Write the structure tokens for this entry.
Amino acid sequence: MDILFSIDIKKEKELTLKELTLIDEARRATYRSYAPYSHFSVGAAAELEDGTIVTGSNQENAAYPSGLCAERTAVFYANSRYPDLSIRRLCIVARDTEGKFLSRPISPCGACRQALLESEQRSGKPIEVLLYGTDSIYIIHSIQDLLPLCFDESFL
Ligand code: THU
């Protein structure tokens, strides 16, 4: 069995205005991160089907596992505030412990991939993911591509 998926690797100058706007929102969201423990600030911006943009940032806690990643914050907020609007595109950006934007694209953790997948399956429409780095941007066409052989509600 072959599992195949494609990623577009682009430079900022090749992106559309909509993509650049979403990146800008995600970059701004990193400055609203609460990361006193890791000092690693992540921002996420979700573009909904009507063009609304919802952002989130990582929110940490002294009891470490109680915190939440930026992308889950954004997507859970989008789904709770606008349950009937699908998410068209999601951008994730991070700044390192020195405050600099990462040069290579940030990669979402496994728990986020699982949560994002459910959001995608719930709407029935693919969510395009932009993983931002200052050197290049990875564009992935569906969350499903980020989680091959996933566990989902079809098993229950
Ligand atoms: N983090 C995110 O918010 N998103 C990711 O994709 C990777 C990691 C957060 C969790 C924690 O607050 C910090 O970054 C360091 O792991």
Summary: The pocket of tetrahydrodeoxyuridine is lined by residues 35, 38, 40, 42, 58, 60, 67, 69-71, 92, 106, 108-109, 112 (CB under 6 Å). The chain has a mean pLDDT of 97.
